[in-house]
Design brief:
Layout: H1 3-17, H2 30-36, E1 43-44, E2 50-51, H3 54-60, H4 65-68, H5 70-73, E3 80-81, E4 85-86, E5 93-104, H6 107-119, H7 127-131, E6 138-151, H8 155-165, E7 168-175, H9 178-181, E8 187-193, E9 201-206, E10 210-212, E11 215-217, E12 222-226, E13 229-233, H10 235-260, H11 266-269, H12 276-290, H13 292-303
Helix pairs in contact: 10-12, 12-13
Amino acid sequence: MTKLRMRLTPLFLAMIVAQGLWGQIISLSKEQMIKYTAQNPFERFPDGRPKVPDGLLEKLKDMSAEEVLGLNARGFRNQWEAGWQVLHPNKMLVGRAVTLQMMPTRPDISGVDQADRRARNQTVLNHQTALDMLQKGDVLVVDACGAQFGGVIGDNLAYYIMKKTGTGFVIDGAIRDIRGIAPFDMAGYYRAAVPPAIHDLMVTGINVPIHVGGATVMPGDVVFGDPEGVYFIPPSQLQDLVDEADVTHIHDDWTKKKFDEGKYVSTDIYSRPRDPALVKEYEAYLKEKLGAQKYDEYLKRRQAGRGPAAPPQR
């Protein structure tokens, strides 16, 4: 089965079950959204998209990609994508995914959708339909089939995204007007910057599962971008990752504190002390900094296999 055929299959299935607002476009109903994000522990938007709390998103801004790597140990091994051009490498990208799926245009498919929407007196869909849905804290994530179909956004639409979301974008495809976009205070990940505007692409899904390179992205996933690349974090995994990051930060502080003493070689301390006296000292330091309740939660995660026996190497 070809890649195009595999991707079109869910499109046509969705045509049967998702009539209404989007016409023939694939769109998860609220019930489907909840079904496929059933492990989400947080509130939801009216359409069922997970709504990770702003407070947790803020905590992510103090984390690194190495700390999010814990997703692999939890079975989520296809949530990372690298190889990007990055608008501002030192600016973090953190927010909730709004997904847009596009495919190379086929008139026999796009024509049916356009005719159907005109018959309903509805505006014909294009990529800006997804942009108009963005809210504060969202991140536009686009599967645009690579860089050969022109720039999905230029400086005007990039400015709109910045003002609407306060975050940025991830476009598995091209952008344009890079000299106009570069001064904006926003994060952006893209494959190439090209002169032509978007062409020969049709919208086939909004807020549906998409793939971005080797990663699978669901609507409401937490987008985490740093200079190394982008993670797409399932909401169900976020709290444990943030809690483990707190442990890692304390571990790093203690490690540097011991190195400052000048009494130890690196293997005495890193990645975890082996001497019983140092282990006891470290655990006491960790408990003091975490607090008794969070320390007990840390021990429970470790016993349940949801946290590393030793902090990750950094």
